[in-house]
Specification:
8 helices, alpha+beta, four-stranded antiparallel β-sheet
């Protein structure tokens, strides 16, 4: 089974969308294996957004993700990285399809509700950055046989 990293950003937490977002991933059939509410440090933010360090919007990314609590999550399931990206929608909420998280709840690219890993390799790096191994659970929901062949 594949794993992905998702983070509900400060705007999603402040707007009380956490429960609905978790419900969407559970309803899809994915398994929550890690969850925590954290105040992101500037160091963690800078490392997470490291590939954007030289870009002019980098300071704004760090400032925003550290501006309030974030819900960090690890989800597991078949094809979860690609499926999560489809469920989240594109970066600019105004270009996201209705039915996606960003399409349903977002308006501004700078307040786009949620982050999701864009590839399996990225997910592995982000999971290791945000979670220690003991913080992740390995378990099998009783519904698994009704989701997977």
């Amino acid at each position: 089974m594949e794993r992905t990293f998702l983070a509900i950003k400060p705007d999603g937490v402040q707007r009380q969308l956490v429960g609905d977002i978790i419900r969407r991933f559970e309803a899809k059939g994915f398994t929550l294996v890690g969850l925590k509410l954290i105040q992101v440090s500037k160091d963690l933010a800078a490392e997470h957004y490291g590939e954007h360090k030289e870009k002019p919007f980098f300071p704004g990314l760090v400032e925003f993700i550290t501006s309030g609590p974030v819900v960090a999550m690890v989800w597991e399931g078949k094809g979860v990285v690609a499926a999560a990206r489809k469920m989240i929608g594109v970066t600019n909420p105004l270009n996201s399809e209705p039915g996606t998280i960003r399409g349903d709840y977002g308006v501004d690219v700078g307040r786009n509700i949620i982050h999701g890993s864009d590839a399996v390799e990225t997910a592995q790096r982000e999971i290791a950055l945000w979670f220690q191994p003991p913080e992740l659970m390995s378990w099998t929901p009783t519904l698994t046989s009704w989701i997977y062949e």
